[in-house]
Design brief:
Layout (H helix, E strand, L loop, with lengths): L4 H9 L8 H8 L7 H5 L5 H13 L2 H21 L10 H76 L9
Helix pairs in contact: 1-6, 4-6
């Protein structure tokens, strides 16, 4: 006998439903779930968050690394070799101060961006989990249906074989036919 969808949900969820209630899962079975997280949630970042994300993207790029290396090299060459009166002499204290200030600004920007990305990843993982669970339930339901169809076919074949035998069997008693 085929299980109801509610029984399948209980079978699959077991004792530890991972914060998805039975009723919620039954509702999920009725609707389409495969949607893009960006479309579902929208882009609700503030202008400051968008700037922070853009800065984090730039700081994590080769363009930034190359530009920083070129600027550092120019600074050191100018102050050590070219200028007669350098504005930042050899131990380059001003350059160190600038680099420290840059790092103290970059780190919070990068962490904020990573936190937002982690939130998106959690939403995506939850969506994937729910989709997988729904697929598992639907597949289990299809399996149960196929098992029932096979059992019905076997019963029909058994009855047809019985009818075939009865049709071609010699009638010993005219009242049996």
């Amino acid at each position: 006998m085929a299980k109801s969808k509610k029984e399948l949900v209980k079978t699959i969820l077991g004792e530890d439903p991972y914060d998805i209630l039975e009723d919620d899962m039954m509702a999920l079975l009725q609707k389409k779930l495969a949607e893009d997280i960006h479309c579902i949630r929208g882009d609700h970042r503030s202008k400051k968050e968008k700037i922070a994300d853009a800065a984090a993207r730039f700081v994590g790029s080769w363009a930034f690394i190359i530009a920083l290396a070129v600027c550092l090299a120019l600074w050191m060459i100018l102050n050590a070799l070219v200028l007669l009166r350098p504005f930042d002499e050899y131990p380059f204290f001003l350059l160190s101060l600038i680099l420290s200030c840059m790092a103290s600004i970059q780190v919070p920007l990068i962490v904020m961006s990573q936190n937002r990305q982690e939130k998106k990843d959690r939403l995506r993982a939850h969506n994937d989990y729910v989709l997988s669970l729904k697929a598992e339930i639907v597949i289990e339901d299809l399996h149960e249906t196929l098992v029932q169809v096979k059992a019905n076919q076997e019963e029909i074949m058994r009855r047809l074989a019985g009818l075939e035998r009865a049709r071609f069997a010699p009638a010993s008693d005219p009242e049996q036919v």
